[in-house]
């Protein structure tokens, strides 16, 4: 479904379904922030209380983890948003009934 990292193809290469009218907008970014925050915030608290690492080490590890998890989730969540729009026949998917 995706041509590049976040660019949605105009049509599906398998079934020729038109995908150009999707409206993902900021939904994938908000969902990524929500998921990454809910995973890393408790983990940060647990690591800090259990191991007491140096602040620079803690900030470096969690910054890299945050960026890596965000880059992993963002295209998958964009595909999820477009798939939900397709399944619900929103924003031009499915044509006139």
Which structural traits does this protein have?
elongated; 2 helices; single chain; 97 residues; mainly alpha
Question: Can you describe what's shown?
Answer:
With 97 residues, the protein is mainly α. The chain has a domain at 27-87. Helices cover 60% and strands 0% of the residues. The chain is built from two helices and no strands. It has helices at residues 27-51, 55-87. The longest helix has 33 residues, at 55-87. The two termini are 25 Å apart. The model has no long low-confidence stretch (mean pLDDT 92).
Quick description:
By secondary structure, the chain is mostly helical. It has helices spanning 27-51, 55-87.
- The helix content, as a percent range, equals 55-70%
What is the radius of gyration? 18 Å
Number of strand elements: 0
Shape: elongated
Q: Summarize model confidence as the mean pLDDT.
A: 92
Q: What would you call the structural class? A: mainly alpha
* Separation of the first and last Cα atoms: 25 Å
> How much of the residues is beta strand, in percent?
under 5%
Low-confidence stretches: none
Q: How many strands, which pairing sense, and closed or not: the largest β-sheet?
A: none
Order of helices and strands: HH
